[in-house]
Design brief:
The structure holds 3 protein chains of 3 kinds. Chain A is mainly β. Chain A has 1 helix and 10 strands, in the order H-E-E-E-E-E-E-E-E-E-E. In chain A, the strands form 3 sheets. A 5-stranded antiparallel beta sheet of chain A has the order 8-7-4-9-10, with no helix packed on it. In chain A, strands 2-1-3 form a 3-stranded antiparallel beta sheet, with helices on one face. Chain A has a two-stranded antiparallel sheet with strand order 5-6. The longest helix of chain A has 14 residues, at about 30-45. Chain B is an alpha/beta fold. In chain B, helix 3 packs across helix 14 and helix 6 (about 160-175) packs across helix 11. Chain B starts with 5 loop residues before the first strand and ends in a 6-residue tail after the last strand. Chain C has helices spanning about 25-40, 60, 90-100, 120-125, 140-155, 160-170, 180-185, 215-220, 250-260, 280-285, 295-300, 320-335, 360-365, and strands at about 10-15, 50-55, 80-85, 105-115, 190, 195, 205-210, 225-235, 270, 340-345, 350-360. Chain C is an alpha/beta fold. In chain C, strands 3-2-4-7-1-8-11-10-9 form a 9-stranded mixed beta sheet. In chain C, strands 5-6 form a two-stranded antiparallel ribbon. The relative contact order of chain C is 0.18. Chain C has a domain at about 10-120 and about 200-220: Peroxisomal Thiolase, Chain A, domain 1 (3-Layer(aba) Sandwich). Classes of the chains: A mainly beta, B alpha/beta, C alpha/beta. Chains in contact: A-B, A-C, B-C. At the B-C interface, helix 2, strand 3, helix 3, strand 8 and helix 9 of B face strand 3, helix 3 and strand 8 of C.
């Protein structure tokens, strides 16, 4: 195979072959996430995992990445917290869970739930960049119990408290 | 230190951009041929090949196996690295370890990506954890914008300072014939007036999506001197990752644990105490304008929180005390699988004195970094002196 | 200038419970099920581990950068991880390189895959040439069938031979039910001449090793097995190979590794082969010079040195199979000492071959 010289390439001949690569997965949420989502759906509680040194990780997980210890305790965190990072997104984005475009603009941020040492990304109910900011307090807004399915989307978004 | 001293003895890059004239395999081969041709070598001079590519971007599973002919790896050991944005640097580091451990004498590394062939947004969505993160993902831009907000809160960096970084990168790229975005007339105002993608990131604050490939040849001490007049010796390498989820690192971009950890190790091994003085050029993997300043802080080029000064005072320009990304950086060129290898190849070219119009004078030591996934860092320090063992 | 250089030692072994579906565990939990016993076996804690090389495939995991699933289990916030997209034996070879050049001292090697969570046809389809092949909607089974067809046409082997390999290897499995030759031959036809039971079943699996350098090994009580040499060779993509029913690159990789070790095939006490399809073991074993035709099949049925674990056919997953065989071989060497060759493959139709040579047991314990 020789290297084609791009300068000699006839752009009129450039062909592009359209193809859809479709992949479908069925992800097992596992021990930790299953328990987390059941508590979220059934009790409206946000559970994190704790190791014996007191590290509290959200999302909950089998092992703490700081101590290397197994995380065998559950603790309730939130539903309030502070923003560890935040933005207002203006570019259209295909929501991977729905396949449709999420309306823009929307607020988006990293929420450090009270009692947790780590943060999770979620949607914010504020789209004015001047009103969001690192360190601002927020609170989870849950979907009504009947609408909850056991997914992170059972928290509709976080609303600003300040 | 290592079993065998190792050096990069040749590099090759494609013209990056939207390359409708080539297939992805041809693109990879273009970089390989340029790398080997620059020393009058052929694939027969290569003992093993290491390939880096992120497969979901073009939707080709086992792409290294499909492209084995183009990669020149038939009948040879073929390694395939796959570590996200940093994969090109991970690939370069694998080349190093395979030579430094005494396994092979001449290892070809190649990173390639053809983002115009696939859906970048769809691929980046799959970076998120399927159980925890995809439901609320906002793509690479939402993530970087959020990280930038953390950095701004810590450092007080301004949109103007970030815009200056974006301008510097695109102007530097004008001297690099391979760069994707070359914008000689770009101004700070243009950056600030470009479309707001996600607050505070404007379109011109972000890296592009490119098609491109990059190759390096890593050689053992016994052959390096025969292959290049001025080999770029590997003085140190480091790989450090972070925790599992995107919100795990307490201050994300502001305090980058993985970058700090990698720098601590790489500097120590290379005997660097004052990076600003002891490094002559740095190629830093900056996916967004804000990221460059944050990374420079974490690399110890200035005090923490002082990144804005690096750009205001011209410290990181081509003429400054420590030129950063004379190639134009990721902000100018970003074919994901190749991007971090381009950092390594550019640093090597600077040491070898072969960087052309963007050559910095008197480069004895150069730094290259890669960044990917959840703050995953690969780093390499190259120098013109063969390291003692 | 005369610095001594370290060897690479395997000091800990772990394997997750392999099953067709581990719906009870997320991918990282499955990986931890392999890592935790490996750490215990080595007598180390996760906080002592400074890095890892992991093996997994983005397409099987349904995730770009599939190893992000396991970052925390292999070194956490400051660990040094690299990830290969190949069989776990390549991860072991790379981990050994990082130890032998002095970069790392105590690491994990991990391979993980949950074949239950993806759709095998669409994943395998994505490995085919997008311009010339995908339009025909092929998968690996079709290629394997062409390969088997050509192999059987040589008159050296038959479908019954392959079925006997399945039956013999299944009998060695810890996780799969035994199968009679007749059951294999009577199973559903997939692509002529292959039948459903010619292929290793899809499984959820993970295997882990703790590896270290000389200094660390000296401090550990764990029984050690040395990684003596490794090699690999890649063939042309299937459609560009003159012949797809042989495996000269498997032989080349083995010859290279044996040469590095200064061993011959006769020195080996264990030879582990890995491939997803039964007839591919016949191709591999004959390529390695272990025999041919009926005589080879009899040997594979009866020789305790040959694939004592049953290889991939005895229950493993893509990318995990080779590392699982390393786990099994190391356990055997600890028991009775000796030398082992582990082979694994990556790619369609036996394209890439990885070989690892191991030595351990009595003579190492008395060092």
């Amino acid at each position: 195979m020789s290297t084609p010289d791009p300068r000699q390439f006839d752009r009129e001949q450039a062909r592009r072959i359209e193809q859809q690569v479709t992949l479908q997965y069925r992800f097992a949420a596992g021990t930790y996430a299953s328990r987390f989502f059941a508590a979220l759906r059934d009790e409206g509680k946000i559970l994190a995992s704790r190791d014996r040194e007191g590290n509290v990780m959200m999302p909950p997980r089998p092992v703490c990445g700081l101590s290397g210890l197994p995380m065998d305790e559950w603790v309730e965190v939130g539903p309030d917290g502070v923003l560890a990072g935040c933005t207002v997104v203006y570019v259209p984005f295909i929501d991977p869970m729905t396949g449709s475009q999420r309306p823009v603009p929307y607020g988006f941020g990293l929420v450090r739930l009270t009692g947790a040492d780590t943060s999770i990304y979620h949607l914010l109910d504020e789209t004015d960049p001047a009103k969001i900011g690192v360190g601002k307090r927020v609170e989870a807004v849950f979907k009504p119990a009947a609408e909850r399915t056991g997914s992170l989307a059972d928290i509709r978004h976080f609303r600003l408290l300040d | 230190m290592s079993r065998v001293a190792s050096a990069i003895v040749a590099t090759g890059q494609t013209e990056h951009g939207r390359r409708l004239d080539t297939s992805m395999a041809e693109l990879a081969r273009e970089a390989i041929d340029r790398c080997l041709d620059s020393r009058g070598l052929s694939l027969q001079d290569v003992d093993a090949v290491v390939a880096g590519n992120m497969e979901m971007f073009e939707g080709i599973y086992l792409v290294d196996q499909l492209f084995v002919g183009a990669l020149g790896a038939i009948g040879k050991p073929l390694y395939k690295l796959n570590t996200g944005g940093t994969v090109g640097a991970s690939t370069a580091l694998a080349c190093y370890h395979l030579v430094a451990s005494g396994r092979h004498e001449r290892v070809l590394g190649v990173g390639f990506q053809k983002q115009s062939d696939g859906s970048t947004q769809a691929a980046i969505t799959t970076v998120g954890d399927p159980v925890w993160e995809r439901a609320v993902m906002a793509g690479a831009i939402g993530n970087f914008a959020s990280m930038a907000s953390t950095y701004i809160a810590e450092s007080g960096v301004t949109p103007e300072q970030a815009a200056k970084v974006a301008v510097l990168a695109r102007r530097n790229a004008c001297r690099n014939p391979y760069a994707h975005l070359r914008m000689p007339d770009i101004t700070v105002e243009q950056v600030l007036e470009s479309e707001m993608l996600a607050y505070p990131i404007h379109r011109l604050d972000m890296c592009p999506s490119s098609d491109g490939a990059c190759a390096i040849l890593m050689a053992a001490e016994d052959v390096a001197g025969d292959l290049a007049d001025r080999p770029a010796w590997v003085h140190s390498v480091a790989t450090v990752h972070d925790q599992q989820y995107m919100g795990d690192s307490p201050k994300r971009l502001a305090v980058m644990r993985s970058l700090r950890g990698a720098a601590a190790k790489a500097y120590k091994l290379a005997g660097i105490d004052y990076p600003l003085r002891q490094l002559d050029v740095a190629e830093v993997y900056e996916p967004a304008s804000y990221a460059l300043l944050a990374m420079c802080e974490n690399l110890g080029f200035c005090a923490m929180g002082d990144g804005g000064r690096l750009i205001d005072e011209g410290i990181i320009t081509m003429e400054g005390q420590l030129p950063v990304n004379p190639s134009g950086g990721v902000l100018s060129t970003n074919p994901v699988g190749a991007t971090a290898m381009i950092r390594v190849a550019e640093a090597a070219s600077q040491v070898m004195g072969e960087a052309g119009e963007h050559q910095i004078e008197q480069v004895h030591r150069a730094l290259a970094t890669g960044y990917g996934g959840n703050a995953w860092t690969d780093m390499m320090i190259l120098g013109d002196e063969r390291p003692s063992r | 200038m005369s610095t001594t250089h370290s060897n690479t030692w395997i000091v800990g072994l772990g394997e997750a419970r392999t099953a067709a579906r581990r719906d009870d565990l997320a991918l990282n939990e499955l990986a931890w099920e392999a890592i935790a016993p490996a750490l215990r076996d080595a007598g180390v804690t996760l906080s002592q581990i400074t890095g890892a090389v992991t093996a997994s495939q983005d397409f099987w995991d349904g995730r770009t950068i599939s190893s992000m699933n396991v970052n925390e289990l292999v070194g956490g916030a400051t660990g040094s991880e690299a990830k290969v997209a190949a069989d776990g034996t390549q991860a072991l070879a790379y981990a050994a390189a990082r130890i032998e050049d002095g970069d790392q001292h105590l690491n994990l090697v991990l391979a993980h895959a949950k074949e239950s969570q993806g759709d095998v046809h669409s994943i395998e389809l994505a490995a085919f040439d997008p311009f010339f092949e995908r339009q025909l909607d092929p998968d690996e089974c079709v290629l394997a069938a062409m390969q088997a067809q050509q192999l059987y046409a040589t008159g050296r082997f038959t479908a019954e031979h392959a079925a006997r390999v399945v039956s013999a290897f299944r009998a060695r499995s810890q996780v799969l039910e035994p199968l009679g030759v007749e059951q294999v031959l009577a199973s559903a036809a997939t692509a002529t001449p292959l039948r459903e039971l010619d292929r290793a079943p899809l499984m959820d699996a993970a295997a882990a090793l703790v590896v270290c350098d000389d200094l660390v090994a000296d401090q550990l009580a764990a029984q050690r097995v040395r990684v003596v040499a490794s090699s690999s060779r890649t063939s042309a993509y299937w459609s560009q190979r003159a012949c797809i029913h042989d495996a000269p690159e498997a032989a080349a990789a083995a010859t290279d590794a044996l040469g590095l070790a200064g061993w011959s095939m006769d020195d080996l006490d264990v030879i582990e082969l890995n491939a997803p399809y039964a007839h591919q073991y016949l191709i591999l074993a004959s390529a390695l010079g272990l025999g041919d035709g009926e005589q080879l099949v009899e040997r594979m049925e009866s020789d305790p040195k040959l694939s004592p674990s049953g290889g991939w056919l005895a229950g493993s997953a893509s990318g995990v199979a080779g590392l699982r065989s390393v786990v099994d071989a190391v356990a055997r060497l600890r028991e009775s000492g000796g030398r082992a060759l582990v082979h694994a493959t990556t790619g369609l139709c036996l394209q890439s071959h990885h070989v690892v040579l191991l030595e351990g047991g009595a003579q190492e314990a008395s060092r």
